[in-house]
């Protein structure tokens, strides 16, 4: 595999050229003094922030239901965001012909709920600042896929702090060909596999009930999850989350009940739905007003299934989600 060693200026120059196309858009992070934001650029881009240390939401959610075919939307995302985009292409929730989505090496992130943290601007200082931070989110502390190796192209940092752009699919040429630097072999360290093994979180039902006791069923965790996409979600009606007369009827049919009713059922069904596509980004936990440690449960289930089916969400555009395929011999030890 080859790539181009570039400077940040080379990248910006290429992005500016890319935006000269009438139908081109760029989605990337910006740093405005102390604040970090996601921004869409149409005609020009003064600067971008490659390493955003503050996590608000999984940016791939904003690509969901882009069905227009005429645009060229270039995205520079974190690895967990590019992986969510890849899953959305398989779930036909985005028109992938319009989107060119790359991933950039990630140093980890802190919650956007924390303020008053001043982050260094220099990437080397930022990396060591985050490595020594006690505020890293659980998702990032346990992340084993933080290299920019996902999506259509990667922006990677080598051990001498050079920036590289690496095409992974043909669509990356939209950017790659605008960069005049010479192509060369990649540093050896880029060819090494990312460490995937590690402890997978498991819990008891008692622990689950304790952790989810505070859930108020606001559904934020569903609404912000990039891969929880059903338009006709079963929790939009009164059957699973009864209210009003539906609640009274349900209690008359069964017994006295804790309100809101069926919150465990809500999380079990949601966990089942995203169990193979969850990218462990922690966006659900970030959106939870009750501080419930959602990531360890959702990511835990996804990692257990990942081991079982040798499937990594967002690793490859061509790899089929296990629940969309059937292989007679895939679970030889399962009971009938
Ligand atoms: S989960 Fe991984 S890729 Fe996503 S922000 Fe955290 S460290 Fe980066
Ligand atoms: S369930 Fe949570 S951790 Fe998993 S993809 Fe959705 S928002 Fe991210
Ligand atoms: S965001 Fe938190 S409180 Fe709201 S439904 Fe999800 S777990 Fe419950």
Tell me what the structure shows.
With 336 residues, the protein is an alpha/beta fold. The protein folds into 2 domains: 2-191, no CATH class; 205-311, no CATH class. Helix content is 30%, strand content 15%. It is built from 12 helices and 10 strands. It has helices at residues 8-18, 79-90, 123-131, 138-141, 173-176, 188-191, 205-212, 220-224, 244-253, 263-274, 283-287, 294-309; strands spanning 2-6, 24-32, 35-41, 54-55, 72-77, 99-104, 110-111, 153-157, 163-167, 183-185. The strands form 2 sheets. The protein has an 8-stranded mixed sheet. Strands 4-7 form a two-stranded parallel sheet. Strand 5, helix 2 and strand 6 form a beta-alpha-beta unit. The protein is globular and about 70 Å long. The model has no long low-confidence stretch (mean pLDDT 94). The structure holds iron/sulfur cluster (3 copies). The site of one iron/sulfur cluster has 16 residues, from helix 11 and helix 12.
